[in-house]
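User: Design a sequence. Structure:
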């Protein structure tokens, strides 16, 4: 007769995808991960490749307030990932139930990656097909319906790159045709254009869209956004200028944008985002990376807690994943997500859990991220002036 192994740190005793929390605590002295009793790696195929990715993976942390998620892309280093861990810890240990809730549902956009026009139409039809009011086209034509909002990724092609530019314009035209005249179209350039290219191309894409709701991060630098804003009459949204900048408040100081895009994970949590919105003083759009319903839940909580919400949010991305971990899944109906707690299904989590190789990569990565978060917090306590936007992580 063999005696069962009750040792908590044994890899064979842990379920598939589960991280060794004791080893992580040993690396950061325990306090940072206080209250976390489980950490599970998920790894899921994508239905539609996005950002060149065919799979997504991340970690779910469980604590007294439920599950929190961190799923930074693999090209982000540990310092860049520190806010993602802070956000996951906030979600798992403190939660958001004490925050104000100004609405019961959050309007969301449909996201169209850089795909062919037919695929763009299919994505919109699929999003519309799940609504009670029928396809997006008819929903947008009902006078009382909330207009459909579509966010289109563009390649950032320059004038000389005729084929890519034509593909961007054809995709935009196909979307306008699919959603009808009342629908809203926003494009995301991810900072790919220089000022001159943006000045020339933006009016062309605006025409293809028959009017853009806004263009997200057309140029890389905040100063270029400010300059462009004085040259074109198309609203500008700042994304990377807020989430990747050491000085996000420059967006307001330079009058560089009409809209602020906020993402909970890279900005270090729901509360930090709320404080940042207040300091920016701009209409906000809450967006996300491609997360499971857990990560999306943090975005929904933020959107619900914003006193004003003029634009649809970028939180309708769960359907880009082939699997999810929550029941019900945070998939929009009638162009909106309900504001409600996220229930993780143990069975779904098991089927989405990562294999040993991905899990061990995360074990090493999370140790680095935790150390980076700890260093940053110590630095900001010692010198509060170094905290980004005056907001400590
Ligand atoms: Mg963006």
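Assistant: Done.
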């Amino acid at each position: 007769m063999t005696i069962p192994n009750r040792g908590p740190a044994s890899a064979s005793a842990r379920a598939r995808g589960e991280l060794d929390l004791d080893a992580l605590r040993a690396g950061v002295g325990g306090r940072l991960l206080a209250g976390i009793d489980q950490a599970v790696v998920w790894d899921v195929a994508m239905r539609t490749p996005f950002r060149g990715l065919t799979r997504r993976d991340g970690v779910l942390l469980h604590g007294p307030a439920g599950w929190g998620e961190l799923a930074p892309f693999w090209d982000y280093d540990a310092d860049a990932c520190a806010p993602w861990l802070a956000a996951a810890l906030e979600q798992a240990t403190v939660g958001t139930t004490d925050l104000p809730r100004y609405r019961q549902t959050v309007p969301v956009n449909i996201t169209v990656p850089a795909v062919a026009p037919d695929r763009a139409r299919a994505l919109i039809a699929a999003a519309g097909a799940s609504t009670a009011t029928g396809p997006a086209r008819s929903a947008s034509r009902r006078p009382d319906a909330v207009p459909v909002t579509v966010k289109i990724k563009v390649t950032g092609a320059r004038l000389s790159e005729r084929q890519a530019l034509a593909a961007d314009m054809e995709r935009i035209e196909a979307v306008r045709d699919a959603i009808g005249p009342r629908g809203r179209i926003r494009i995301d350039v991810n900072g790919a254009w220089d000022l001159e290219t943006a000045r020339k191309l933006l009016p062309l894409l605006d025409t293809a869209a028959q009017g853009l709701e806004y263009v997200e991060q057309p140029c890389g630098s905040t100063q270029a956004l400010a300059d462009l804003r004085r040259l074109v009459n198309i609203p500008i949204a700042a994304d990377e200028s807020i989430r990747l900048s050491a000085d996000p408040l420059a967006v307001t100081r330079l009058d560089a944008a009409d809209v602020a895009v906020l993402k909970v994970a890279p900005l270090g949590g729901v509360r930090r985002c709320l404080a940042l919105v207040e300091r920016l003083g701009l209409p906000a759009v809450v967006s996300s990376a491609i997360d499971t319903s857990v990560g999306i839940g943090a975005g929904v909580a933020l959107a619900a807690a914003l006193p004003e919400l003029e634009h649809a949010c970028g939180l309708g991305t769960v359907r880009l994943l082939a699997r999810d971990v929550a029941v019900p899944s945070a998939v929009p109906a009638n162009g909106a997500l309900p504001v409600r707690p996220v229930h993780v299904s143990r069975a779904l989590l098991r089927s989405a859990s990562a294999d040993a190789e991905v899990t061990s990569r995360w074990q090493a990565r999370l140790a680095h991220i935790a150390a980076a978060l700890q260093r940053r917090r110590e630095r900001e306590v010692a010198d509060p002036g170094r905290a980004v936007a005056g907001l400590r992580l």
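The chain is about 40% helix and 15% strand. Residues 1-9, 129-144 have pLDDT under 50 and may be disordered.
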